[in-house]
């Protein structure tokens, strides 16, 4: 059964290099201007339902922009770029931050993660800071001058997360969704560089494979966003080498290693937080986390 969100007609065969995410700076429902500038838009109705709609331009229109008929979503970076927008943030202000009367929502953001994951799979786009990025990251990551853009780099529902971390957390989430999709199909996600084949089995029998699992200097690491989403942990802050997660209202600090835009934490620390033991099956390259049965 095909559970994809995006119809095949919305993703025509063409060479695309990256996905750039935005907010529309409009209302939570798109208007004619929004649909002219973005390939895909994520709306939210008053009742809270979210949906993805197609803009006026095909993604294929941006494979080459020499004819002037394309979705102009990012200054000097439209060729080869898919533009996806969250509808909202009309009247927003960067500093001091104000979301305005039409803030984007967590439900829209979660749908955005899935949409971009599907786009990366369809167009074989690797999840890196240069290929999956916020509009506000374009100038820094691609060295293409923009006009003070900072979208969509604040979460109105969680202002504890600094804008500088939004892009990396989004990439972690997208990669996690790609990994889940690959596992459900019995395949390895094709978009990450090859890693040693390792498998981690969690206490609830969830099996995780590469690329959500990686090995560095003999230590096994797990994708932070994937683990946090699975267990309902809240990622509060991240730095270049650490992450703080809240579990049942208690903060815990974990080591963090960022590779290709994805953040990983040591399996030994995950085991500690879960109260689980760790065992290693060398021949099968499998790490198992298990909790002792209560007597």
Automatic annotation (TrEMBL):
Every copy of the N-acetylmuramoyl-L-alanine amidase domain together lies at 6-153
Q: Which domain of life is it from?
A: Bacteria
**Signal peptide (residue range):** none
What Gene3D superfamilies does the database record attribute to this sequence?
Copper amine oxidase-like, N-terminal domain, Peptidoglycan recognition protein-like
What is one process in the GO biological process aspect for this record? peptidoglycan catabolic process
Which spans of this chain does the record mark as coiled coil?
Answer: none
Matches recorded under Pfam families: Amidase_2, Cu_amine_oxidN1
Q: Name one GO molecular function term.
A: N-acetylmuramoyl-L-alanine amidase activity
Q: State what protein this is by name.
A: N-acetylmuramoyl-L-alanine amidase domain-containing protein
Tell me which species this is from.
Answer: Armatimonas rosea
